[in-house]
Amino acid sequence: MSKQLKDIRYSVLDLATVIEGHTAADTFGWSMELAQQAEALGYNRYWFAEHHNMIGVASSAPQILIGYIAGGTKTIRVGSGGMMLPNHAPLVVAEQFGTLATLYPDRIDLGLGRAPGTDQPTAYAIRGENMNAPNHFPQDVQKLQRFFSADNAEAKIRANPGEGLDVPIWILGSSTDSAHLAAALGLPYAFASHFAPTYFKEAIKIYRNNFKPSAQLAEPYVMACVNVVAADTDAEATYLFTSLQQFFTSVVTGKRTLLQPPVDNIDDVWSIYEASAVSDMLSYAFIGGPEKLQRKLSAFVDETGVDEIMVTSHIYDHQAKMRSYKIFAEVIDA
């Protein structure tokens, strides 16, 4: 299972973070610039995550952002990390991603999650009476597979465009539940260790031990999403990291804000309780200069055997964020 950094792929998770003093329009322009740099640096894929009712996160419509980024790039895969399937009818998702895959052949990924991507009142506003329905996530994933299958040509309900297209489906997880489903269906598995690290190791063990080969995948494939703040020095990275710490503090307290500028002393911002809660959520945060990153990431890959690392970076200054992704790529490729 032991792997080295040079053995793995690396990708980007973009939450379309809105920073203090700027707008979502600024964010989208920066996302395009980051995606184009990521493509040039050899990143494998660029994903957006579906979130709602968060003023600091502008990725409420990932399917639209996917088309925007795919249209401004040439080779990098673009997709969802993920579409929160209980918020959508499978047929509509198949049509949307079938359209994307028709426009951008062999470049579109469909990552699926079972969470609402928001708070309960907002989830009710999205789903209405479907909030009270039983969990149909496994069945809905299989419906999507049928809609994309060429074998669905004789069915009464068909996805056009979508039918017969190769749109890779991924299962996303933040606990152990989806690990069983990804294994049973023989699909690649992406874990949200960037905010829910508790069950990461247990979940990927379940997935690998129970994996059944499928037409899409012969062997288990694990992608871990982690937080990375890289800079030329450890001290600079630690300073930039305080923006992410503030962001997670706002999640813990429920006082959502735009991404704040870094601070000299994070202890002036949070309480002891908040510091403990945020530190737990950020167990898989890799912060530092190139040497520290190389050491920490090598240990992580060796221990977990992941096939791919997906990086998300909440950094206030856009140029510092671009620099962070460049350093990360250089560390992996060294």
TrEMBL record:
Coiled coil: none
Domain Luciferase-like, first and last residues per copy: 21-254
UniProt signal peptide: none
Pfam families: Bac_luciferase (PF00296)
GO molecular function annotations of the record: oxidoreductase activity, acting on paired donors, with incorporation or reduction of molecular oxygen
GO cellular component, one term: cytosol
Family: To bacterial alkanal monooxygenase alpha and beta chains.
PANTHER family hit by this protein: LUCIFERASE-LIKE MONOOXYGENASE (PTHR30137:SF6)
Protein name: Luciferase-like monooxygenase
Source organism of the structure: Mucilaginibacter myungsuensis
